[in-house]
Specification:
The complex is a heterodimer of chains A (312) and B (243). With 312 residues, chain A is an alpha/beta fold. Chain A is built from 11 helices and 14 strands. The model of chain B has no long low-confidence stretch (mean pLDDT 84). Classes of the chains: A alpha/beta (312), B mainly alpha (243).
Chain lengths: 312, 243
Amino acid sequence: MPAVHDRDQIAVSFAGVTKRYGATCALDGVSFQVSQGEMVAVLGPNGAGKSTAVDLMLGLRRSTAGQVTVLGGPAAAAVAAGRVGAMLQAGGLPAGATVAEVVGLARRLYGGPRPLGQLLAMAGLTDLAGRRVQHLSGGQAQRVRLAVALAGRPEVLFLDEPTVGLDAEARRGFWQRVHTVAGEGATVLFATHYLQEADANATRVLVVVAGRLAADGTPASVKARLAEKTVKATLARACPETLRRLPGVVAARADGSAVELRTRDADATIGALFSERLRPSGLQIEGASLEDALIALTEQASRQRSAVTAGT
Amino acid sequence: MLTFTLFELRRNLRDSRFLLFLVAMPPLLYLLYSGFAGPGTIDGLPAGESFMVSMSCYAAMGAAMYAIGPPLAAERATGWIRQLRIMPLTGPSWVAAKVIQGSVLIFPGVTAVALTAAAVHHPHVSAARWAALAAVLLAGSLPFSALGLVIGQALEGQSANSATLFVMLGLSFTGGLLIPDPRLPAGIRHAAQITPSHQLAAAASAILGGPHITYTSILTLAVWAAAAAAAALLLWRRDGAAA
């Protein structure tokens, strides 16, 4: 569990936060603390509650129970004070305005801590300053939204699925810009489905599954929690049923004679492959990826849910 | 707040189709409905001036509502309003900015009406009275701007368009702008006194025909403006990220 931090250094905290929409429970007793300067990825399957969590952090919704604190006070207060910047999923831009006008509006609303020219340059928009927003490509519009998010020199930056629809090069450019801002001391929280991005950019990962916090730690620790490895081999005979019964095996997949086994005990599994005379060749052992971890946590959560339902 | 008003107006002015709509819509709607009812004549005014009063009120009401309502519903759908809400723009600032924007946008339509009236009816109106009429219409369009804001905040897409038209027609009817006042059934005529359209028409005709704008007119318009603005503010603040 993360250590308790000095109160002044906590950027965002959720304490027993629950959010219900009628009968649906989007978030159930979620608690975590993010210190200033951290770069945190919020992961989870669709419908897990990520977007609700972001809405709560931005003061767009209020929790049903529990407390959401941003920079020492209610989320809405931090937003009103201009200390928060955000890039929203499917955030639109006002048709008819130019890039410079939109970024300029944001800048003026935030009190103008950075010169307009610098903001445009930071997002790579200098050449596009006079372009109307409806004539921008997807990637260009994304950069405008980033400039708007950065306009107030925010202490906390929220990015909700920020690189959807961007090509690889655009994504790389985006993260470079974000790291520059993080380097200036901003706390960054981002929700994403691109798990490699989370792995590459986050110092901490929060996994939300079915409204609960399923994991909280560094990417490495979350992956290690699984203590699962993937064993790949080519077998003379590959019957998934037999494979699943091997010691340690959690899941088995066979594609012709090529098999992929997810196992909790790689050594025992490999030993069994030999002792059962399955004649494995081309053995490969891989550590769990963040994607495997996420899938496993999701499965675990749904197993727990069915256990609870069955028990009642 | 002023920053935001100017921002909105600047991009409105670039949208030529939108401006054309604001200019053409009031006369068109008027002609459409005066087709079956005859142009509403305000008591005590010669036909030319009466026509001009009705039409310019129609222009002011329609422009204010249409300029604010449907575009807001569309912008909410694109997610821009949500982006705006997480910037340090307070609810009251936003409501004030939008209401002012709507009022400013009546000018294209009202000017078109005035020019048409001048060309067709040659009303005898001094420059001072023109100015006073413009001022009254500007101030009197605030409640309609606010009503447009409420519609745009509360409804989505096509519903916002339909609701704006519906409210516009309803208020025009009770304002005596479609069917002349004396021909309205007694019950409706009495209820119509408290509608903003009726009082706007009354104020505008008082400028041209005297004697003076009544306190009733001022109060009615002010109360409607305040109530609609309050409703818009409430909708902005409601617990919901959909906008």
